[in-house]
Amino acid sequence: MKLLNILPFHIPAPTVRMLRKYNNERYCISQLYDGKTGDYICDAIEDTVRDVNHNGCFDNGEEKVYGETAIPCGRYYVTFRKTSLAIGAKAKGGCIPLIHDVPHFSFIRIHNGTDEKNSEGCIILGYNKEKGKVLDSESVCLEFYQRMKYRPFWLEITDNF
Description:
Blueprint: E1 15-23, E2 27-34, E3 40-47, E4 74-82, E5 95-99, E6 108-111, E7 123-130, E8 133-135, H1 137-147, E9 153-159
Parallel strand pairs: 1-9, 6-7
Antiparallel strand pairs: 1-2, 2-3, 3-7, 4-5, 4-9, 5-6, 7-8
């Protein structure tokens, strides 16, 4: 059962806006902002964007490549769920963010890493201080989880390139 099929789309929860800034054939760099205040939170890296017309779906010849494609633009409900990933051992209750109802994707999480090779469709948080990488990822993730208070939130993803 899909979560959004049983919950109304207007669930009161904070919003995080992810604005994609740079995309190439290997990776995409984004910035995350508080949806209420507009404050910058951190950077992110993920696989390359293949939704070239930025409409939130793969159409007009666009194709998803397993493990090498960023999730489409859109608004997604995010909850915290237990994980076997190493960062779970440091996160409250072993839980990290799980993004729900992403078309053509499953088990998409927000976690730590260094570059798009650690992504496989997931969003990797950190600070983009080095070309093609995010740094301080583990501490940035744990701070982000605390900021979200381990509670559900909305993630709005848009492209600006």
